[in-house]
Amino acid sequence: MPSDQSTIAPAGAADGAAGQARSMTGQIRSMTGQGRAAGPTDIGTLTVELRTVNNRGFKCSIRTPDALSGSESLIESVVRKYLHRGSVNLSINVERQQGQTPVQINGTVLAGYIRQCQTAIDQAGAASTSQVSLDVGSLMTLPGVLTGSLPEGDEAEKIFQQTRRVVIDALENLVAMRQQEGAHMAETLLGECATIAAHVRSIESLAPQAAESYRVRLEGKVKRVLAEYDAEVNAVDLLREVQVYADKADVSEEVTRLDSHLKLFQSVLRGETPDGEKNATKDEPVGRKLDFIIQEMFRETNTIGSKSAHADVSAIVVEIKCAIERMRELVQNLE
């Protein structure tokens, strides 16, 4: 990948976009992906599943078994170290060992409830005894029947550390998938940049023709009008009018700024500073920054279209806008 930022990728450079995109996989990441991992813990075998979709910010929804309900904030802090944007759904399921249950039945308490119920039924009289039956499910909801304390202290910390390792494995699988998809998106974005650059070069060559075309049209109209009144016009006045129009229709500044935005966009994709040096913060998410650059690119393109009356330039502006919109859709899917 060249480090020289002074030249925008020319038309046909899209063929080299794949190689550039592959070198970006550590930086460009999609916001969509899935990750899964499983591992043993003291409470059983945990299975962690992660799914992410687009979101303007970071949003994390966590579903855990009761034994980990007190660790949700700690689990989210782990996720935040790996993911910066996107809507995250994290689900943790536990498969306990045979005979292992999260809660136990206190037989003594249950037997006491049954005895009390039976005594109450007997005291109600033989007539009503046959009409009353004990519902075990209802008895289970009575205080003290089900026991099972949540992990606390050192036990809770140990279980969290075991869970953390499984969560990190799932996150690494998710990030790998997001990076792979991001590399494909970066390849497409570089191709669109090359397309826009080629269109900009065409505008540069066509823009000077606009003033000459205007001069020819204006001179023809003036001659027709003057012929009706048998009058003449000073050539200097005609040229002055053409110059005023040329100044108004000049798009050189907009073209220069659009060139600059394209260079900046590509340097951000490559994880470099505008002068070609590697960016020390290259692992930071770039989706928002690229989105802002695209807004500026669209603004300059829109100005070029409004200032130029050349039909060919107007057609090229439409093509550039279409390319920018395609880029915008992709960028909004980047972290």
Strand-helix topology:
Layout: H1 17-22, E1 33-41, E2 44-53, E3 58-63, H2 72-82, E4 86-95, E5 104-105, H3 107-124, H4 126-129, H5 136-140, E6 146-147, H6 153-229, H7 235-249, H8 252-269, H9 287-307, H10 311-331
Parallel strand pairs: 3-4
Antiparallel strand pairs: 1-2, 2-4, 5-6
Helix pairs in contact: 2-6, 6-7, 6-8, 6-10, 8-9, 9-10
What does it look like?
It holds the Pfam family YicC-like_N. One of its GO terms (molecular function) is RNA endonuclease activity. This protein is α+β, with helices and mostly antiparallel strands. The chain folds into three domains: about 30-100 and about 150-180, Ribosomal Protein S5, domain 2; about 105-145, no CATH class; about 180-330. It has ten helices and six strands. The strands form two sheets. The chain has a four-stranded mixed β-sheet with strand order 1-2-4-3. The protein has a two-stranded antiparallel sheet with strand order 5-6. A hairpin with a 2-residue loop joins strand 1 and strand 2. The two termini are about 25 Å apart. About 25% of the residues are buried. Mean pLDDT is about 80; it is low at about 1-25.
